[in-house]
Amino acid sequence: MENITKSEGYDVKASHRSLRHENVGFDLLLVEDSDTDYYVMERILKRHMPMGCEILRATTIAEAEEMLETHPQIDAVLLDLGLPDSESPHDTYSRLSAYKERMPIVILTSLEDHAMALDMLEVGAQDYVYKNLIIRQPELLCHVVEFAIGRHESFKMSKSDMQKELDQTSELLSLMGGSYSAGH
């Protein structure tokens, strides 16, 4: 696989290094109240994540919010939608959506509701993965996490580049306006 990716001009390992400043993998917050589901997801991530990962666990939205405030190094949130301190799947996501600018939020759920998946993506979730698919294809979870982090980093860089360009354009217009008015 490494030869294929390099021959196409894309080096997976170099990409990981650019996403992570150290070569230690990702820090993930897994928000899951089911001990069984948590154990399965943790085991899959530990076994299949190419660069490795550190996993923090929260069992409620309140715990997740506290962890996100006290652990700024978290690279992504893996969020179960059915949590005990939430009124609905939409409530679960909306309470953590304040963090979507800082890191991607990937929905992990046993609810196979395509319309809800589209709704979650529309309001800012990076991805929506059915748990039964993860059980059948464990590497899927790792790919989803890596791609979500990559897309999020790319979006943040694009947004930063656009802001720099806007600032430069604004500065240029200001200088042009200032020099024009100074000449009159």
- The assigned CATH architecture is 3-Layer(aba) Sandwich
How are the strands of the biggest sheet laid out side by side? 2-1-3-4-5
- Helical stretch tally: 8
- Helical proportion? 55-70%
**Structural class designation:** alpha/beta
Number of domains: 1
Major sheet:
5 strands, parallel
What portion of the residues fall into strands of 2 or more residues? 5-15%
Q: Which consecutive residue ranges, at least 5 long each, have pLDDT under 50?
A: 1-22, 179-184
Broad CATH class: Alpha Beta
By CATH's scheme, which homologous superfamily applies? Answer: Response regulator
> Span between N and C termini?
65 Å
Q: Radius of gyration over alpha carbons?
A: 20 Å
Mean pLDDT: 81
Tell me, briefly, the overall form: elongated
Helix-strand pattern? HHEHEHEHEHEHH
CATH topology: Rossmann fold
Number of strands: 5
Short summary:
This protein has 184 residues and is an alpha/beta fold. It is built from eight helices and five strands; from the N terminus they run ααβαβαβαβαβαα.
Give a description of the structure.
This protein has 184 residues and is an alpha/beta fold. Helix 3 (35-48) packs across helix 8 (138-183). It has one domain (2-183): Response regulator (Rossmann fold, 3-Layer(aba) Sandwich), CATH 3.40.50.2300. Mean pLDDT is 81; it is low at 1-22 and 179-184. The chain has helices at 2-7, 12-19, 35-48, 61-70, 89-96, 114-122, 131-136, 138-183; strands spanning 26-31, 53-58, 76-80, 105-109, 127-130. 58% of the residues lie in helices and 14% in strands. The chain has a five-stranded parallel sheet with strand order 2-1-3-4-5, sandwiched between helices. The termini are far apart.
